[in-house]
Amino acid sequence: MTKAILVAGGAGYIGSQTCKVLHQAGYLPVTLDNLATGYAEAVKWGPLVKADLRDRDVILDTIKQYDIQAAIHFAAYSLVGESTRNPAKYYDNNVAAATDFASTLVEGRVTSLVFSSTAATYGMPQTRLIAEDHPKNPINPYGASKLAFEQALHWMGQAHGLNTIVLRYFNAAGADLEGEVGESHEPETHLIPLICKAALGKSPPLTVFGTDYDTKDGTCIRDYIHVIDLATAHVAAIERLMAGGGSDAFNVGTGEGLTVMEVIKAAEEALGRPVPYSLGPRRDGDPEILVADVSKIKATLDWTPKYSDLKTLIESAANWQTIRPY
Ligand code: UFG
Predict the structure, then answer these.
(1) Which atom in ligand 1 lies closest to the alpha carbon of residue 206?
(2) What is the pLDDT of residue 285?
(3) How large is the ipTM?
């Protein structure tokens, strides 16, 4: 029988791509989403249960109805800037509601959970490559809320046997290669979609935030990971848990850093058109460089990124911005 996986936040950017990859791997993704930031149109590979993380009865019924074997939790707010202006919103949803959700999973006897965490849990890096045991000193409420829930999951694991794999994403980008789902954030704040929109004339010129960093061209370095590669990491994590693996945490990135200017230049080449941009001051809270040490996930989950070269990242993101059905 097809194994059903509960995907909280399955109507969002990374959640919907993961549903597609789960379906391709032979699972039934059952999306739980309140559609606060997700899209019903993105739920294509299994049922949508329109409910909140706190809707205990609905979640327990869903677990029973589909015989849910494991869960993935994507349903969080993720805007760093907004989190600094409204921290309570982030603690309420990303910690309190998430803890209710985890408690309901325990009550429904679902003992395998994969949690979407972030490189923002580390704060300012102290080493060039960031490994999972790097100190965690988040510099914004978004990162702090994700770290707090990681810690809650640790203690819930000890108390209730809830096994969790935490995946700490670096910079998610790109879109489905068949254009079936993609990134439609409102407002959009991320570099790659903004570059594509500016190049396509769908948004004003981009501002490069900071040109005086201690990097080869003065702009920030990030580790961009294609959303399909992120999705396959979730499937690998779910399969490890369902095979009896215990709680763990992994970075998900490529291990390679790119400057903002390198991404802009690569986009101009890939798209064959200029990217309109201007140079501006630094954005508050931006670490100079964030690059993952990915040796642990490669060795333990036998996972490797396949679509995270810049050309594929840019072309798939631009294709999505061109068709943009939602
Ligand atoms: N950037 C610009 N101009 C823009 C937007 C971004 O120059 O208009 C630069 C940023 O300064 C940064 C890089 O492009 O150097 C990437 O910025 P994004 O906003 O795309 O992504 P972040 O690195 O800020 O954020 C990502 C995730 C967050 C996570 C964070 C970890 O989106 O969820 O990494 O620090 F918290």
Answers:
(1) 8
(2) 81
(3) 0.96
